[in-house]
Amino acid sequence: MTVTIVDEGTYSEPMHHALDEVILDRLNDGEIGPVLRFWYREGPAVPLGRFQAYEDEVAVDYVDSRSVDVVRRITGGGAMYVEPGDVITYSMYLPREDVPADVEESYEVLDEWVIDGLRAVGLDVAHEPLNDITHPEGKIGGSAQLRSEHAVLHHTTMSYDLDIEAMLSALRIGEEKVSDKAVRSAEKRVAVMREHIDADREEVIESLKETFAETYGGEPGSLDEETIETARRLAQSKFSTDEWNKRL
Amino acid sequence: MEATGSVKVPDGKLVRVTATYEETIETVRITGDFFLEPPEARADLEAAIQGLSADASEGEIAAAVETVDAELIGFGPADLAAATREALE
C-alpha cells in the first residue's frame, strides 16, 4: 500500500468536510488510492459531531457574531473549537481491509504512528481508549471514524495551541457560569503541545509525516482535479447548508 | 409531554434522548457525541423506541434497541434505555 500524502491546500471548513466525504467515496469505489491529508483552514470553526444537537453544543450568538463556521462532520464524536494556526488536523483514508475490524482496536492501531511522531518531538503522549490522544496534563487530541463498504476515514484533531477563552465562548460547555473555575477545569482537561515542546507546528507535522511514511509507506502528492471539483460542489450543496449543519 | 434525559457513559460518550409521549412514546430524538455504524441507523434506533409504552422498563427499552442492526460505539442499549427512562420520569 502506497499512500499519497497531501500536505497542502487551504480550504473553507465546509470544503474540508466535503473532501472527507468525496475522498472516502472515491477510495470506496476504487477510483483513487489511499490518502493521508493534512488540513489547512481559513478561519475559526467548530466541527460538530455528526449526532450532536447544534443548539446543545454551540453558543449561537458568539459563533454568528464572530463568523465562526460551524460544520457538522460525517463522523460521530464531539464538538471542537479550532483556529487555523492552533490545531493539527489530518484525515487518513484507508482500504477497509488494512484496518482492524474491531473498532476499538482500530483506533489504537491507527493512532500508533501519531504517538510515535509526537514522541519524536519530545511529547509524552499515549493513546487512551476509545479515541483520545493524551498527555499527562490532559487531552491533546481526539479521533473519529466512518466506515464505508471498502474504505475507512479516520480523522484526528490535536491542539498545538488553544485560545481557551474563545473555545469556552464558542462552545456551550463554557456557558455553565463562565467563571475562572470553569476555565481552570477546562484547562486541566485540555493539554496543548506548545507548552511542552520547542518544536513549532510545522516541525510537528514534518515529524508526523516521517513516522507515517515509515509505518505505511507514502509519497507526497496532490488531490486530483475531479476530487477537488466534486468536493467544491458538495461543500456548496451540503456542508454550507443549515439543512445539514443544523439538522439536529 | 416533551422531556429530555441524558446519560454520560463512564469513560464513554454522552447520549441524550428527547421524547414526546402520552401513554406511549410518540417521538424520540437521539443525540450526543457517540459513534454509530452505520450512521443512518440513528433513525432505526429512534423508531425502535417509538411506540413503546411510556411505562416500559429499561430492560424492555434496551431489548427493543437490540433488535436494530447497528454497532453502538462508546455507549450501549442500556445507556440509551436509561436516558429514555430519565426523559419519561
- As a percent range, the share of helical residues of chain B equals 25-40%
Q: Give me the oligomer status.
A: heterodimer
Query: Secondary-structure element order of chain A, as H and E?
Result: EEHEEEHHEEHEEEEHHHEHH
Query: Gap between N and C termini of chain B, in Å?
Result: 11 Å
Let me know the CATH homologous superfamily of chain A.
Bira Bifunctional Protein, Domain 2
Query: If strands are numbered along the chain, what order do they take across the biggest sheet of chain B?
Result: 1-2-3
What percentage of amino acids of chain B are in beta strands?
Answer: 25-35%
Query: H/E element string of chain B?
Result: EEEEHHEH
What's the total number of strands of chain B? Answer: 5
Largest interface pair: A-B, 22 and 18 residues
Proportion of residues in extended strands of chain A: 15-25%
Task: Provide the CATH architecture of chain A.
Answer: 2-Layer Sandwich
Spans where pLDDT lies below 50 across 5 or more residues of chain B:
none
Q: Quickly count the domains of chain A.
A: 1
Broad shape of chain A: globular
If you consult CATH, what is the topology of chain A?
A: BirA Bifunctional Protein, domain 2
Report the CATH C-level class of chain A.
Alpha Beta
Cα gyration radius of chain B (Å): 12 Å
Give a short overview:
The complex is a heterodimer of chains A (248) and B (89). With 248 residues, chain A is α/β, with parallel strands linked by helices. Chain A is built from 9 helices and 12 strands.
